[in-house]
Amino acid sequence: MTMMGRIRPRSGAIAAVAAAALFGVSACGGGSAEDSGDKVSATVPDNAFRAKADIAGATSMSVDARFKKVDNAADAQLLAPGVDLHITGVAQLDTLTAEVYADLAGTSPGVDREGKPVKEVYPAKNQAFYAVEYSSDDPQWEPRGEIPDSVASVVVNGNDVAEVLRTDEGTMHRGTIVASLPADSAPDSAVLEVETDGKFQSLSLLDGHRVSSDVEQVYEVADRDVKVSSVDEFEKNFTGWTGDKQRIAGSVADAFVVPWLHRRDGGDGWAGSGKTYLSVEMEWAEFSATSFDETTMHLELDNGKTVQPGNDPSGLKSAFKDRAVFQIPADTKSVTVVVEPQVTVGAGSSAKKHTWDPFGAKIAISGGKG
Fold first, then answer.
1. What was the pLDDT predicted at 42?
2. Are 290 and 351 in contact, with CB atoms under 8 Å apart?
3. pTM assigned to the model
């Protein structure tokens, strides 16, 4: 698979640390380095077949290598709807088998000068081979509905090299990437990059750590627990347009936080920079269409600021047919839900408006990996 010319947009903080310390053990894949600190094999036969420079891609062939396990640090992960991506192991290889090379290049290395089939392929001059194991699963973000398509690609020096996985083909992925890279490559120069709903994130192929993210707030709110407490139970009666007795009643039932929410669920894709969605569900009674439920909901943050919902949760017979969805700062620990009940009976100048004291609930947000 040869390098393509399209340049992806780049953004986010770039790590500048060296990758050499990662390779504390030697790796083998047709040949292994005696000194793993030596980025390029010291002994290459004069008649060696060398790979094309910067060749890279996922391979379905077995790669015999001693992989260095990537640590379980908070930044050794990439999250998106349907994506929980980790680079689990990295190895440096002196050579590739002819079969692995053919799988990457799409063509066999052929025969050597003596007419014998090439069995080992050496990296291009001043380059080194790396093998990377990866895995991805669905993080199961609420509300467990439709997710956007995500595409993961190998990107070298800003150029797409090969597509590795797509969530429209499933959310469980396991595989191996092989890349020929300059021996002095920095961690951010060769990455596994994921695009989801117009946002880009990437993990370094050299050390497995996250080097960029357009949605860094994801890692502050991932796996947050939400607890609803101090719930007020509201119930009142009022006289309808025909003189009948009607009832308005309900309470806050549930809530969750999530960094991406489908428009069908009241969101707008990714939450704004530094923010997350808080989705609040109400148990709410419906009543006659001749009475208009104009009940509203807002949030009060600990700093005294008020947040209005970004969607309209009302329906024909209920103010809360759908969940009310808010965007709040990603570091929010608690909010107060305030519901202001109001009903208008009839229409025109004879319409009568009923209002009652506000009620609500407390929401505590805790945990996560931030």
1. 53
2. no
3. 0.84
